[in-house]
Amino acid sequence: MGRAYEVRKASIQKTGAAKSKLYSMYAREIYQAAKTGGIELESNASLKRLVERAKKEQVPSDIIKRAIDKVNSGADESYVEARYELFGPAGSTVIVDCLTDNVNRSVSSIRAVLNKCHVKMGAIGSVAYQYDHLCVVGFKGLSEEEALEQMIMADIDIDDVETNNGLTVIYGNPKDLFDIKNAISNVLPNVEFEMDEITMIPKDTITLTGEDLEVFKKLVTMLEDVEDVQHVYHNVNL
């Protein structure tokens, strides 16, 4: 079907201060999921998925436990989602998702980065229409044809499926994430999902060189350092 299986999503390097940022990111998301849907993993699919992903990224168990226990303690932190759409150098675009308890702080921090990198913030929807909002599930053990057959049997309408170096990747509607995983688990009970996320994938990508590439890398690095930033998506081949 042809969709590039690489998800172009900036990732936080797990060293030094970035580890602390990663842990804080998961702690917020886990707390919010537990507060919204309850603290029991088996009855809160979103929380279960977050905990599984956090463990894969080697987030310490005590951080996960504290984030869930905070709901029982009566703490009433309130986080909201905020999205910023950016125009980078030479036709590059960036989507920044934040989870924050202070929107004014978030937008101020993002604008400070933009000023230093001399790039612009777009209006709501000015960049997002160039991306597909999809869930991505990657695993080994089934061919592309076998995976597609399982989706048909489960009556799940997917966007794409492909295989690369033995890894089969299914792209679908975000609301179908858990159904897709369950359909695969039914035929592969011990399957390990190497990709399991809801993301924004660019419909088209570009390649940057020279100064434009350096500015773009600086932009992404600085955005990842912003406290409230959870995810950074872009359309650049890196």
Overview of the structural elements:
- The protein is of the alpha+beta class.
- It folds into three domains: 9-72, Integrase, N-terminal zinc-binding domain (Arc Repressor Mutant, subunit A); 80-129 and 203-234, YebC, transcriptional regulation domain (Alpha-Beta Plaits, 2-Layer Sandwich), CATH 3.30.70.980; 131-202, Alpha-Beta Plaits, CATH 3.30.70.
- It is built from seven helices and nine strands, in the order E-H-H-H-E-E-H-E-E-H-E-E-H-E-H-E.
- It has helices spanning 17-37, 45-56, 61-72, 103-117, 144-153, 177-187, 210-225; strands spanning 9-10, 80-87, 93-100, 120-121, 131-139, 158-164, 167-172, 195-202, 229-234.
- The protein has a five-stranded antiparallel β-sheet. Strands 6-7-5-8 form a four-stranded antiparallel β-sheet, covered by helices on one side.
- Strand 2 (80-87) and strand 3 (93-100) form a beta hairpin.
- The protein is globular and about 50 Å long.
- The two termini are 23 Å apart.
The Rg value, from CA coordinates, equals 19 Å
Strand order of the largest sheet: 1-9-3-2-4
How much beta, percentage-wise? 15-25%
Tally of discrete structural domains:
3
What order do the SSEs take from the amino end to the carboxyl end, as H and E? EHHHEEHEEHEEHEHE
Q: Whole-Å distance between the termini? A: 23 Å
Oligomer: single chain
CATH superfamily of the largest domain: YebC, transcriptional regulation domain
Name the poorly predicted regions. none
Instruction: Sum up the overall morphology in one term.
Output: globular
Indicate the mean pLDDT: 91
CATH topology of the largest domain: Alpha-Beta Plaits
User: So, CATH architecture of the largest domain?
Assistant: 2-Layer Sandwich
CATH domain class of the largest domain: Alpha Beta
SS summary, helix count: 7
Helix content: 40-55%
Structural class: alpha+beta
Largest sheet entry:
5 strands, antiparallel
Number of strands: 9
